[in-house]
UniProtKB/TrEMBL annotation, chain A:
Name of the molecule in the record: Succinate dehydrogenase/fumarate reductase iron-sulfur subunit
Native source organism of the sequence: Arthrobacter terrae
Cofactor(s) named in the record: [3Fe-4S] cluster; [2Fe-2S] cluster
Residue stretches making up the 4Fe-4S ferredoxin-type domain: 150-180
Family: Belongs to the succinate dehydrogenase/fumarate reductase iron-sulfur protein family.
UniProtKB/TrEMBL annotation, chain B:
GO biological process annotation, one example: anaerobic respiration
Cofactor: FAD
Annotated protein name in UniProt: succinate dehydrogenase
EC number annotated for this UniProt entry: 1.3.5.1
Active site (UniProt): 339 (proton acceptor)
Organism: Arthrobacter terrae
Xref: SUPFAM superfamilies: FAD/NAD(P)-binding domain (SSF51905), Succinate dehydrogenase/fumarate reductase flavoprotein C-terminal domain (SSF46977), Succinate dehydrogenase/fumarate reductase flavoprotein, catalytic domain (SSF56425)
Family membership noted in the UniProt record: Belongs to the FAD-dependent oxidoreductase 2 family. FRD/SDH subfamily.
Catalysed reactions listed for this entry: a quinone + succinate = fumarate + a quinol
Domain FAD-dependent oxidoreductase 2 FAD-binding: 45-450
NCBIfam families named in the record: PRK07573.1, sdhA_Bsu
Principal location class: membrane
Membrane topology: Peripheral membrane protein
């Protein structure tokens, strides 16, 4: 199959960017979307042009590195699918496909389709952990964790930190990411002691990074490649309120 | 013919304390000099890599009060390749009361490694395995639990006990997030500084000691010098020398290879593990391969059509026309034979023309019988996520048609040589995780890489590096202006300029693909002297072409992914040659290393303990000069050497 790509090209953080069209021919439907971009890049290299820069590493949907807005949708048209898990068989011969980076003032563009997501690391630094220095741990069997809590924590912990939720949110909010971390750690008995302070610290950092507020629109969960549900944000809000209450009493 | 290698002095001291094996680690810890907390603040450590090994080491050394600088090439430490591990992590907890113990985990690991690992290290690994699980649970790693709230385990990789802890199919992700969060906590505490999107391109050695690294800021292209009192490499394995592997596409050997060139011995580079159950290559465009967990072999049956070229839909091929070759050849273990045996058997079937799917490189893994026996719901419950992943990639529904699988490169047992303290042959350079050669011998057992990475980072390195600091006080304050540092930066800059000015006709990727195909063909599942020599010729010629005909577009002073890859592929060339030389010299079959010249009458691997019970540690002697073989002989006082048999 043949496709036309319209791709955001931007040399660096400070340069102006624009959409540029490229044709790619003889694409196999069994190629992944990123393999199709590899083909384009081989083509550009042969012509002496700069290949398109895009983030990727595991190419199996787990590292959270890939980050393409495809035809206006973060991670593209397939549900529960990261950009790297998308296959060309979901497109049609002759299609024109738009490819853009995550758009958010908190994720500055570094080049072409690559953005800076270090704000996420700083949210975790603010409190996204359980304080458990190496060596101080009791025997793992000393604490029972109800299966439903362990499962809930696990579901939240599957967040791959990709940032699609931010890219999709009309407010540019990162509350789904933050809520997933608060839920992961807050669902476990080990995480109770720091539960409220953790939530508050993360939300404060979230705001300081310039991410917008959540108005429960739900675009985030619709594009999330692992299906983090919206109620994890409610969970976070509950913890934050408790923290504020603790602080005032 | 020119000599492929020379033989140097035997390695005598591994620093393993003598005495009964179960007392050695305690003895070493007691013998190691301690540093008081106030003085730790004055000591700095560079850690390259933020996977399980690097993140756990950085967090722990940060907690201890050292000044830590951590580096990774991704945009966040959380994205290291460890994130992709699926199956689980071993620990000798014996929560199942099924006869597990430190001794049994030790024994299984030494035997699984086909008696090519160092006893003292493996015993210590088994000893600390329990504490890893405790540590991870305390951090909030959501391991699988049973309805009573207790930790669940499963059995994995052909052992008879149930000692593998897991978090659904995402164990690596959960363990890494635990270590990453501990690391970020130390960043907030001010003890660790993380440099993401920074790639180490050289090691700085001053007065014979590792004192720093040269890194490239991958966004601006700036070359930076970082100095410290010690350097730790946690940069992962080199599977991508084969181009196609189950590793993340950015995994590379640059950090370890550059250190090798600066004097660190590289041990057993030819010990590379091929995993039997991966999704086959679908075409020329393939950029990586995806693992289908080993656990599938518990219920799936592997077969090929008896008749070469039988093109029927697999569901229409009657049982009588199918060859369940593993069940036939290995009645005792059947589909559960170890990884190396299953992989080679699949290759043999495909070589004989009985393979299925594109290019005939695939065999069926069939769940029809298991579905009939257990019901679809049970299969879904156990393997649902894997089936979905398979479906997504191949567009075939494994509930309806058998999966097609083929072996793929997965893990590298070889790596930089380290002693019992995890210190390389360059004083002050420590190596942890998959980057070192240590604990898995010639073949790694499932669920033991995660265990080793975390053992190294949480518990072993933090108890040995202090001894180095006390015994090697840095007398001279060093900064970027030191002549050795300047020399290293200049060399890196010159190399980058060379890449950018060759301006040839072929892309970096085309070279990587061709190199990978050569290594896979001649230094993959089967090796022999003739093939390896042929490969060395091909690699040399291709390497020469690379340095005259590669095309790297753009400039250094910008985000330039082609330039990044060029450096990695250039290092893979050199490593590939060493792998072939190592494979050539080891005229025995052991673990993952199968030499066609060394097999039993019925075609099984034949180990030659009298000649090869040693670690082959290679010394770099210069470009175009043959590497020097340094042997560390392996002595077994606590296990008896036997030939493996799975018939
Ligand atoms: C698909 C898959 C499934 C697996 N499943 C299991 C399993 O179930 N159980 C098990 O025990 N093992 C498993 N393994 C093996 C295991 O995951 C790895 O061996 C292990 O995670 C390696 O960890 P590491 O910390 O040594 O290195 P990695 O996690 O590979 O981390 C390497 C780090 O080094 C950095 N780095 C590399 N080079 C440079 C450089 N030049 N400059 C700067 N930084 C650099 C990277 O950025 C990264 O942070 C699996 C492997 C694969 C591929
Ligand atoms: S919540 Fe979902 S979309 Fe947001 S970072 Fe996590 S995985 Fe990505
Ligand atoms: S490349 Fe890792 S999630 Fe897509």
């Amino acid at each position: 199959m043949n496709v036309t790509l319209r791709i955001w090209r931007q040399h660096d953080r400070h340069a102006a960017g624009r959409m540029v069209s490229y044709g790619v021919e003889s694409i196999s439907p069994d190629m992944s979307f990123l393999e199709m971009l590899d083909v384009l890049n081989e083509q550009l290299t042969a012509a002496g042009d700069d290949p398109v820069a895009f983030d990727n590493d595991c190419r199996e949907g787990i590292c959270g590195m890939c980050s393409l807005v495809i035809n206006g949708i973060a991670h593209g048209p397939e549900e529960l699918t990261a950009s790297c898990q998308l296959y060309m068989r979901h497109f049609t011969d002759g299609d024109t496909i738009d490819i853009e980076p995550w758009r958010s003032p908190s994720f500055p563009i570094l080049r072409d389709l690559i953005v800076d997501r270090s704000a996420f690391d700083r949210i975790i630094q603010a409190g996204g952990y359980i304080s458990a220095p190496t060596g101080a741990a009791p025997d793992a069997a000393a604490m029972l964790v109800p299966k439903k809590d362990a499962d809930r924590a696990f579901d939240a912990a599957t967040c791959i930190g990709c940032g699609a939720c931010v890219a999709a949110c009309p407010n540019g909010s990162a509350m789904l990411f933050t809520g997933a971390k608060a839920t992961h750690l807050g669902a476990l008995p080990q995480g109770q002691l720091e539960r409220n302070s953790r939530a508050l610290a993360m939300v404060n950092q979230h705001d300081a990074e310039g991410f917008g507020g959540c108005t429960e629109i739900g675009e985030c969960t619709a594009v999330c490649p692992v299906g983090i549900p919206l109620d994890m944000i409610s969970r976070l809000n509950g913890d934050v309120l408790s923290a504020l209450r603790d602080n005032t009493t | 013919m020119v000599e492929l290698f020379t033989v140097g002095e035997t390695i005598r001291d591994t620093k393993a304390p003598g005495g009964p094996i179960q007392e050695q680690w305690e003895a070493r810890r007691f013998g190691a000099k301690l540093i008081n907390p106030a003085n730790r603040r004055k000591l700095s450590v560079i850690i390259v890599g933020t996977g399980l090994a690097g993140a756990s080491a950085a967090a722990t050394l940060g907690e201890a009060g050292y000044q830590v600088k951590s580096f990774c090439y991704q945009d966040s430490p959380r994205r290291a390749h460890s994130i992709a591990a699926q199956g689980g992590i071993n620990a000798a907890k014996d929560y199942r009361n099924d006869g597990d113990s430190i001794r049994r985990l030790f024994y299984d690991t030494v035997k699984g490694g086909d008696y090519r690992s160092r006893e003292s290290n493996v015993y210590r690994l088994a000893e600390v395995s329990s504490a890893i699980i405790d540590q991870c649970v305390a951090q909030g790693v959501p391991f699988a639990r049973d309805y009573g709230g207790l930790l669940d385990t499963r059995s994995f990789g052909g052992v008879q006990v149930s000692r593998t802890f897991y978090a659904r199919g995402q164990t690596g992700q959960q363990l890494l997030l635990g270590a990453y969060q501990a690391l970020e906590r130390q960043v907030a505490a001010g003890t660790v500084e993380v440099h993401t999107r920074h790639e180490m391109l050289d090691l700085i050695v001053i007065d014979g000691k590792a004192r720093g690294i040269v890194v490239r800021d991958m966004v601006t292209g700036a070359l930076e010098t970082h100095v410290a009192d010690a350097v730790v490499l946690a940069s992962g394995g080199y599977s991508n020398v084969y181009h196609l592997s189950t590793n993340a596409v950015g995994c590379n050997t640059t950090a370890t290879w550059r250190a090798h060139r600066k004097g660190a011995l590289f041990a057993n580079p030819c010990f590379t593990q091929i995993h039997p159950t991966c999704i086959p290559v679908s075409g020329e465009h393939q950029s990586k391969l995806t693992l289908m967990s080993e656990s599938l072999r518990n219920d799936g049956r592997i077969w090929v059509p008896k008749e070469a070229g039988d093109g029927r839909d697999p569901r229409e091929i009657p049982d009588g026309d199918r060859d369940y070759y593993l069940e036939r050849q290995y009645p005792a273990f059947g589909n559960l034979v170890p990884r190396d045996v299953a992989s080679r058997a699949a290759k043999n079937q495909c070589d004989a023309g009985r393979g299925v799917g594109p290019g005939g490189r695939g065999v069926y893994l069939d769940f029809a019988d298991a579905t009939a026996r257990l019901g679809r719901a049970a299969i879904e419950e156990k393997y649902g996520n894997l089936f979905d992943m398979y479906h997504k990639i191949t567009d075939e529904d494994p509930y309806q048609v058998p999966m097609r699988i083929y072996p793929a490169v997965h893990y590298t047992m070889g790596g930089l040589w380290v002693d019992y303290d995890l210190e390389s042959s360059i004083p002050g350079l420590f190596v942890v995780g998959e980057a070192n050669f240590s604990d898995h011998g010639a073949n790694r057992l499932g669920a033991s890489a995660l265990m080793q990475g975390l053992a190294d980072g949480y518990f072993i390195l933090p108890n040995t590096i202090n001894d180095y600091f006390v015994k090697n006080p840095s007398t001279e304050a060093i900064d970027a202006s030191h002549p050795e540092a300047v020399k290293a930066v200049d060399a890196v800059r010159a190399r980058i300029n060379t890449f950018l000015t060759i301006n040839g006709a072929r892309s970096v990727d085309s070279f990587h693909k061709e190199l990978g195909a050569i290594v896979w063909e001649y230094c993959g599942m089967e090796r022999n002297a003739e093939g390896l020599q042929h490969a060395l010729g091909l690699i040399g010629a291709l390497r020469d072409e690379f340095w005259t005909n590669v095309k790297v577009t753009g400039a250094n002073e910008e985000l330039n992914q082609t330039l990044e890859r060029a450096g990695r592929v250039a290092d893979f060339f050199e490593l590939a040659e060493l792998m072939c030389i190592d494979a050539f010299h080891r005229l025995e079959s052991c673990g993952s290393h199968f030499r066609t010249e060394s097999q039993t009458d019925d075609g099984e691997a034949l180990r030659v303990d009298d000649d090869f019970a040693y670690v082959a540690a290679w010394e770099f002697t210069g470009d175009n000069s043959p590497p020097k073989l340094r042997k560390e002989s392996l002595e077994y006082h606590n296990v008896k050497l036997t030939q493996r048999s799975y018939k």
